[in-house]
Each structure stands twice: as structure tokens, then as C-alpha cells.
UniProtKB/TrEMBL annotation:
It catalyses: 1-octadecanoyl-2-(5Z,8Z,11Z,14Z-eicosatetraenoyl)-sn-glycerol + H2O = 2-(5Z,8Z,11Z,14Z-eicosatetraenoyl)-glycerol + octadecanoate + H(+); 1,2-didecanoylglycerol + H2O = decanoylglycerol + decanoate + H(+); a 1,3-diacyl-sn-glycerol + H2O = a 1-acyl-sn-glycerol + a fatty acid + H(+); 1-octadecanoyl-2-(4Z,7Z,10Z,13Z,16Z,19Z-docosahexaenoyl)-sn-glycerol + H2O = 2-(4Z,7Z,10Z,13Z,16Z,19Z-docosahexaenoyl)-glycerol + octadecanoate + H(+). It comes from Phocoena sinus (Vaquita). Belongs to the AB hydrolase superfamily. This is sn-1-specific diacylglycerol lipase ABHD11. One of its GO terms (cellular component) is mitochondrion. GO terms for molecular function: carboxylic ester hydrolase activity.
Length: 156
């Protein structure tokens, strides 16, 4: 139930920013509960992406690949079994990724969801994995939601 409320709140927040005349600005009571952490990057610039460590299982390029994003304290190997099974059973490409400051990916002082989303926005096109299906657990799920909201104008 709590996760559903967080998703609803995030969607409400995103909708309000697309349609500011409907509320949810600084004077709105829900504004302080926006579930996306502000970026810790300096000067309000976009976060600087880091080169993420990943494992890509080969498959057909005709269907969108599956991208697994782990939770806090996790790493890409958390999904080894399911990634391998899904690649074999569906024939899709499957990507598992170490988020910044996790596993084999580089460390950075910026650990915001914006930075983690930017890392993926940098990596996925490099690998030819756009569009894709994002599957995230906990922190990875929140990163996936932010990325989907930031790229919602793109065709599926």
C-alpha cells in the first residue's frame, strides 16, 4: 500500500509540473513530500554521468530489452538468475547495471535520483537499448520511475 501511495504521489507531482496551473507548487501542502531527492550537483546544472558497470545478455534486437536496476546496497549480480532465465525464455536482451556508488561502478559524491537517472540516460543509448523495459527494486524502482517521467514524451 505504501509503495502505491509513493507512486501515486510521484505521478501527481509529475503531472503538476507539466500542468503548473493545477497546483502543487511551493505553496502546495504536498510540495515538501516530492519523492525525488534534489540533486546535490553544484549550480543547478545537470548531474554529471558516471560510466556504469553492467552485464548485457545477448538476445534478439527486435523486442525491447529488459533493464534491471537493483536496490540500495545491491548490485547487478542480484539479478543474475532471473536475467539469465528471462534472456533464455524470452529471447530478449537483458541488461543488469550497477548504480553509481554500488558494485563495480565508480563512486561519486552525488547520489541523487537525478544523477542515477542521468547515468542511465547516458548508458542506454550507447548500448543501443532505447526503448527498453525498466525493472527496478526499491532505489532502482524509484530511479526507473524518474527516468520514465523524464522521458515520457518519447514514444514507447
Amino acid at each position: 500500500v505504501r509503495a502505491g501511495k509513493e507512486i501515486w504521489e510521484m505521478l501527481r507531482w509529475a503531472s503538476a509540473w507539466r500542468h503548473p496551473h493545477r497546483g502543487l507548487g511551493p505553496s502546495s501542502p504536498s510540495f515538501s513530500r516530492v519523492p525525488v531527492a534534489p540533486s546535490s550537483s553544484q549550480g543547478g546544472t545537470d548531474p554529471r554521468p558516471v560510466p556504469l558497470s553492467y552485464r548485457l545478455l545477448d538476445g534478439e534486437a527486435t523486442r525491447p530489452p529488459l533493464v534491471f536496476l537493483h536496490g540500495l546496497f545491491g548490485c547487478k549480480t542480484n539479478f543474475n538468475s532471473i536475467a539469465k532465465a528471462l534472456a533464455q525464455q524470452t529471447g530478449r536482451r537483458v541488461l543488469t547495471v550497477d548504480a553509481r556508488n554500488h558494485g563495480d561502478s565508480p563512486h561519486s559524491p552525488d547520489m541523487s535520483y537525478e544523477a542515477m537517472s542521468q547515468d542511465l540516460q547516458d548508458l542506454l543509448p550507447q548500448l543501443g537499448l532505447v526503448p527498453c523495459v525498466l525493472i527496478g527494486h526499491s532505489m532502482g524502482g524509484r530511479t526507473a520511475m524518474l527516468l520514465a517521467l523524464q522521458r515520457s514524451q518519447s514514444p514507447p
